[in-house]
Each structure stands twice: as C-alpha cells, then as structure tokens.
Amino acid sequence: MTAIAHAAGYTIVESASLTGRNTFRVPARAALLLDVRNPAALAELFGYAALKTQPVLVLGEGSNILFTRDWPGVVLSMATRGIQVVDDDGEHARVRVEAGENWNDFVHWAVGHGYAGLENLVLIPGTVGAAPIQNIGAYGVEVREFIAAVEAWDREAGALVRLANAECAFAYRDSVFKQQRERYVVTAVEFDLPRRRELRTDYAGVGDELAALGITTPTPAAVAEAIARLRTRKLPDPALIGNAGSFFKNPLVERTVAERLRAEHPALPAWPAGAAQTKLSAAWLIEACGFKGLREGDAAVSERHALVLVNHGHATGAQLWALAERIRAGVRARFGVEIEPEPRVV
Ligand code: FAD
Ligand code: EPU
Fold first, then answer.
1. pLDDT tens for each residue of 84-95
2. Helix locations, 146-265, DSSP H
3. What is the mean pLDDT of residues 105-127?
4. In which band, very low, low, confident or very high, does the pLDDT at 54 lie, cut at 50, 70 and 90?
5. What per-residue confidence (pLDDT) applies to 170?
6. What is the rounded CA–CA span in Å between residue 75 and residue 18?
7. Any idea where the domains of the chain sit in the sequence?
8. How confident is the model at residue 6 (pLDDT cuts 50, 70, 90)?
9. Where are the alpha helices (DSSP H) in the chain?
10. Could you tell me the sign of the dihedral formed by the alpha carbons of 217, 195, 119, 270, in that order?
11. What is the pLDDT of residue 85?
12. Domain 242-345, what fold?
C-alpha cells in the first residue's frame, strides 16, 4: 500500500485494503482509496480523469456493505467533521452536520443539547452522511422525520447541490441517493431538531426496558438508554463478530397476500404499510425455515437474531453472499415471499 498524494484536504492510497473498513471484516481491496477531509476538494477531484472514467464507490464506516470482490476503481470516503447550530429559536434548531461525523456520537450530542427525537436511533453504526442513503430507522422512528435538507456533490451536474426533504424520495430503507447511487456524494445533512416532542416508546420492548430501569417519566436520555440496552442484547456487536445488522429488509407484500399467510401462520408478525401493503417480519420467515444459527464454514446466521448474517472469523464476502442466496431461496420456496438484501452488495 503506497500513499501517492497528500494534497490539501485529501489523501490517496493505491491498492488499499478495505478489510478494516467494513464491519463484516471481509477481505477486499480498492484500486484507489481517497479520504476527503475538505468537501471543497471534491470539485478538483471529480475533475480528474480517474474519477471521470473509473467506477466510484462512496464508503462511510462500512456497516451496511458486503464486498464479494475487490473494487476496481476509486473508493471515496468522506472524512469531514463538524456540527454547527445554524439557527435555534428555542423551539426548534437547524443543525448542519458534516458527512464524516459518527452517527451515534451525533445522537448523543443532540440528546445532550436538549433536542428530542433522535434518541430512538441511538447506537446505529455508521456516519451521518450515510444516514439519508437508506433513511435509517429503528424503534418506530426514521431519520427522514428530522432531515430538513441533504447537501451532496452531484456528479451529473458537476456541482454541489442541496436537496430539500421532499426531493429525497425517502421511503422504508430507501431514498433518491440509494436509487441513483452513482450520482450523489452526500457532503452534509441539515437536521430540524425539536426541543419538545412526544417521546416514542410504543415499539415492542421499550416500555418494559424503561420499567426495568425504574423510569416512570421518560426523558430523551432515558429512552436512548433503554433502546441502547435492548439493541445490545438483541444484536451482535460488530466489534466482536463481523456483521452488517439486518441483512434483509422486511418484505412489503400486498395486504391480501399477508392475510393469506397470516391465516396459515397466525404467529407471523405483520405491520400495516400504507393502504394496500403489509410489512412482514423477515426474521420470523427466516427462523421458520430453520436457518437461525445455521453455519457454513465461518459464514453464519446469528444465533441471536435470524435477520443478521455474521462472519465467525475468516468468511469471505462470496461465502456470506452464497449463504444469503440460500436463505432467500428457502424463504421463497416455503412462503412464496421475496426478501431483498438491505446492505449494498458489491
Ligand atoms: P456504509 O456501509 O459505508 O455505506 C452504506 C451505503 O451508503 C453504501 O451504498 C455507500 O455507498 C453509501 N454511502 C455511504 N456514505 C455515503 C455518502 N457520504 N454519500 C453517498 N453515499 C454514501 N440501519 C438502520 O437503518 N437501522 C438499524 O437499526 C441498524 N442497525 C444496525 C446494527 C448493526 C450492528 C450494524 C452493523 C448495522 C446496522 N444498520 C442499521 C445499518 C447501518 O448502520 C446503516 O445503514 C448506516 O447508515 C451505514 O453507515 P455507514 O457509514 O457505515 O455506511
Ligand atoms: N423475530 C424472529 N426471530 C428472530 C428475531 C426476531 O422471529 O430471531 C421476530 C420477532 O417476532 C420480533 C420481530 O421479528 O418481534 C421483529 O424483530 P425486531 O424488533 O428485532 O425487528 P426487525 O424487524 O428484525 C428492524 C430493523 C432493524 C431495527 C429494528 C428495531 C429492518 C430490516 N430491520 O428489525 O434495523 O433496529 O427493526 O426497530 O427493518 C438494520 O436495518 O440493520 C437494523 C438492525
């Protein structure tokens, strides 16, 4: 690995290992790895032939990506930092955060500064810049509720652009940035954070966890603590065992399909999703097929949570992907339901 440039605002490394940059910890290399510390450098960088002709992959903390092979082009990481309160009228604040900030640190910053809402999204790994990509969500809240605008380098326009919330096409685990992933490099996110908000404690388990903590009048900090405890119990820690959180999205099916499945399998968890659709629990479908805990070499389905694939040590991305394909085929054969991967699969 050779560093070939240390120009103002960015670093370039040739043939760089990505093993330490993805939470599955699978081996992969990038032909060129670019760490950008100054967003102003993007205009210069995207002017270079290498970035015009080679495939560009934007990488955050690598907690929602599976490399099944090396990346033949440029891997670009936004390493920019900064949280700035742009405006605060005592009720709401407009807060602008650079893409490279750590998401969980920002949640703690917000709770610590007296803003409400983000506490349900505590302990989600990754960067602030990646949060809008799949519209991260947990415990009854999605980040889109708090995003005022997203700033991005638009490779089509060759300029920095600002997309208002309504232009981001946010949906369950989806956005315009995910749909047009070659086009946008998110550089900063502007949040609209309320000081007062009805706390969301209705998601299964949150009320019990608050009660176990002896909390009767919850604050955002208490909700964050309860959810952090729940998450730590339920999900394997990527610092200890490689994983990318949920490997599949919960499938959306026609309401009539869900009704038929629920008639046969009354225990199948299901949630209404709009007028005509129902969201089914992928974890339940996978567990019902007998895949929970299944291990093929070092690639496995977590024993804790059926939706999480784990790397017990030396699994490759290709082996994890083969296991994922087997699970998908099993769920399709048994229930006639298609489950889609949540992480980006390279
Ligand atoms: P990466 O994994 O590096 O990238 C993910 C995708 O975003 C890639 O397609 C990448 O190209 C793109 N991307 C990243 N940064 C940018 C940028 N600046 N501009 C343009 N594109 C970019 N997710 C949830 O929604 N809810 C959860 O509860 C949740 N729990 C998790 C628990 C665990 C243990 C783990 C490991 C993951 C979990 N995730 C969850 C998934 C993951 O944390 C999120 O998707 C997170 O936003 C990914 O951030 P990242 O910086 O690691 O992105
Ligand atoms: N379940 C099983 N077997 C399991 C685990 C769960 O049958 O091994 C069933 C249980 O009945 C449970 C239901 O699935 O009640 C839902 O489980 P959980 O509350 O863990 O939520 P999930 O649907 O599996 C989703 C998100 C998570 C998010 C949690 C909490 C997706 C794909 N996943 O998981 O996000 O943290 O809800 O809100 O929507 C991620 O995206 O990476 C992620 C971890």
1. 999 999 999 999
2. 176-179, 206-212, 220-234, 255-264
3. 98
4. confident
5. 98
6. 9
7. 2-78, 83-194, 242-345
8. low
9. 41-45, 49-53, 103-112, 176-179, 206-212, 220-234, 255-264, 282-288, 317-335
10. positive
11. 98
12. 3.90.78
- Decide yes or no: CATH 3.30.465.10 for domain 83-194: yes
Q: Is the beta carbon of 138 within 6 A of some atom in ligand 1?
A: yes
- What is the best residue among 120, 139, 246, 268 to mutate for testing ligand 2's pocket, by most ligand atoms within 8 Å of CB? 246
| CATH classification for the domain delimited by 2-78, as one of 3.40.50.300, 3.30.1330.10, 3.30.43.10, 3.30.70.2860 | 3.30.43.10
Look at the alpha carbons of 170, 171, 174, 180 in this order and tell me if their dihedral is positive or negative: negative
pLDDT at 42 over 60: yes
Band of residue 328 on the pLDDT scale cut at 50, 70, 90:
very high
Q: Is the pLDDT of residue 2 over 50?
A: no
Going by C-alpha positions, the residue among 159, 141, 177 that lies closest to residue 60 is 177
Q: Which residues are catalytic?
A: 173, 246, 342
Furthest-apart CA atoms within the chain: distance in Å:
63
pLDDT, tens digit (0-9, with 9 covering 90-100), for 197-239? 999 999 999 999 999 999 999 999 999 999 999 999 999 999 9
The angle subtended at Cα 179 by Cα 329 and Cα 24, nearest 5°, is: 55
Which helix or strand (DSSP H or E) is residue 301 part of? strand 299-301
Report the chain's mean pLDDT, rounded to a whole number.
Answer: 95
CA distance 28 to 19: 6
Residue 244 CA: nearest ligand 1 atom is 36
Residue 134 in contact with ligand 1 by CB distance below 6 A = yes
Mean pLDDT of 274-297: 97
Instruction: Please state, in angstroms and rounded to a whole number, the distance separating the CA atoms of residues 126 and 24.
Output: 13
Tokens of 346: 């390279």
Amino acid present at 184? Y
Do the two domains 83-194 and 242-345 of this chain adopt the same fold? Answer: no
